[in-house]
Specification:
Mean pLDDT: 82
Oligomer: single chain
Largest sheet: 3 strands, antiparallel
Helix content: 55-70%
Structural class: mainly alpha
Distance between the termini: 26 Å
Number of helices: 5
């Protein structure tokens, strides 16, 4: 998941990169982008991360969009029990829907955060 999501005011471009504090972060892969952002920091506006309620709603929306009723029921069960975030992610990670989940997260979070930012400016 992307940790930094930034809007570049002069160009309207949205840049993103993973959390540099993440133990699996590969600095070499993102060094050029991070240097670009740091060198023009005053022209970037960071987006806020989703809160847990928004994240949970995203998981529910994804689950309800599934046509595979068996897998859908499995995820609904995960969401209604203890540790819903952890169990949902583990279940999706081990499924054929893993890429669908990540595609949805990337599209919706970028779009939603952009609209929130525009509406608050």
């Amino acid at each position: 998941m992307w940790n930094a999501l930034l809007y570049h005011k002069p160009t309207g471009v949205i840049e993103s990169h993973p959390d540099p504090e993440d133990p699996f972060f590969e600095e070499e892969e993102w060094e050029e982008l991070i240097e670009k952002i740091e060198s023009d920091e005053h022209n970037y506006i960071p987006f806020e991360k989703m809160d847990s309620g928004e994240s949970f709603q995203l998981m529910e929306d994804f689950t309800n969009s599934l046509t595979d009723t068996h897998f859908k029921d499995k995820l609904l069960h995960q969401l209604s029990n203890r540790k819903p975030f952890q169990n949902f992610m583990h279940t999706v990670d081990e499924s054929e829907y893993r890429q669908d989940w990540f595609d949805l997260v990337n599209v919706l979070t970028t779009h939603d955060h952009t609209l929130k930012w525009i509406n608050n400016k």
